[in-house]
TrEMBL record:
Residue ranges of the region described as Disordered: 1-20
Location of the CAP N-terminal domain: 28-122
UniProt protein name: CAP N-terminal domain-containing protein
Any single Pfam family the record assigns to this protein: CAP_N
Listed GO MF terms: actin binding; adenylate cyclase binding
UniProt lineage: Eukaryota, Viridiplantae, Streptophyta, Embryophyta, Tracheophyta
GO biological process, one term: actin filament organization
PANTHER family to which the protein is assigned, alphabetical: ADENYLYL CYCLASE-ASSOCIATED PROTEIN
Annotated organism of origin: Noccaea caerulescens
Gene Ontology, cellular component aspect: cytoplasm
Coiled coil regions in record: none
């Protein structure tokens, strides 16, 4: 996705050139710009939380990629889906590794929350999965 001044821009994406951006992606872009960008910017202001900002940017940015892909094709076979989500899996894995620069409570909270970004891998159980992550 295109990032301009820390925000996601539907109009600048590759899809725009080929006929437009799906409404769901535009809605996600609005969510991202209103909620994720301020969080990322705030997190990146401190050395203690800078990594969390980077992880959030990568994880929630990938969710946009997944939403866009879901509007272009059907769910792939499990092996292909696993390959597709490798960038998100890498972020989730990174959040689980000890990091002395991040306060433990911040790292644990974010590590627990970022797992919810993989909701789209759950098929018909995505809503229940996301709700379980909130609890």
């Amino acid at each position: 996705h295109a990032v301009a001044s820390g925000s996601v821009s539907s109009g600048a994406s590759g899809a725009a050139a080929s006929g437009g951006v799906p409404r769901e992606v535009e809605d996600y872009d609005q969510f991202y710009n209103e909620h994720v960008v301020p969080f990322v910017n705030a997190a990146k202001k401190s050395k203690e939380t800078e990594a969390i900002g980077s992880w959030a940017e990568r994880a929630w940015g990938f969710v946009r990629t997944a939403i866009f892909a879901s509007k272009q094709s059907k769910k792939p076979a499990d092996a292909a889906l696993a390959k597709f989500v490798e960038p998100l899996s890498a972020v989730i894995t990174e959040t689980q590794k000890p990091n002395r620069t991040i306060p433990a409570n911040h790292a644990k909270a974010f590590g627990d929350a970022v797992v919810a970004t993989s909701w789209f891998t759950q098929g018909g159980n995505a809503r229940a999965f996301a709700q379980d992550q909130l609890e």
